[in-house]
Fold this sequence. Notes:
By secondary structure, the protein is an all-alpha fold. It has helices spanning about 5-40, 45-60, 60-75, 85-110, 115-120, 125-155, 170-180, 185-210. It has a single domain, classed as MetI-like (MetI-like fold). Helix 1 (about 5-40) runs antiparallel to helix 2 (about 45-60) and helix 3 crosses helix 4.
Amino acid sequence: MTIWTMMAKMSEGLGRTCAIFFLTLLFSLPLGLLVALLRMSKNRVVSGITKAYISVLRGTPLMLQLLAVTYGPFYLFGASVAREKLVPVVIAFSLNYAAYFAEIYRGGIESMSLGQYEAAEVLGYSRLQCFMRIILPQVIKRILPSVTNEIVTLVKDTSMAFTVAYQEMFTIGKQIANSQTSFLPFVIAGVFYFVFNAAVGWVMGRAEKRLSYYR
Length: 215
């Protein structure tokens, strides 16, 4: 099998890899903010439950979470395993990354001076208006490097979907490598991930420059 044939076959899973990546970001970023706010709640029950959620999701392997979300309903309730495994894969990824993003958000929010809330209150802003218009934009600027690091990790973690036999790019490459007894498909996959992460780094770098007016 030629390198072009391998690339053509692996490109079939490329769209699925991108789907995992973009859908995970779509759901995990806002969910992470919500989790962070609940974690900072003055209600001890809400804060405790959220803290436990973060601890469990960060303290157990993503591979295990993928297996639990995909096959757990079958073993627990006898429900049929989803034929389209993109849904449980995205759910598992989103829940996992929301836990990490939540701690990044929390660190950014807690780093803000309380004086800004007081100044906004004097100017007639409500607590919500102050957070959305004054605090959150500054938080996004501060946490962008940490968020970029997690996004880069997400690009590579999409390959974990092979755990539940989801046919993304790495899974197809692994199948080709086994059938052809060749390491070349792994090299092709490595080049893809490198280029993808380079693109992510460029986009996030541009975003940081756009927000440089806070300096």
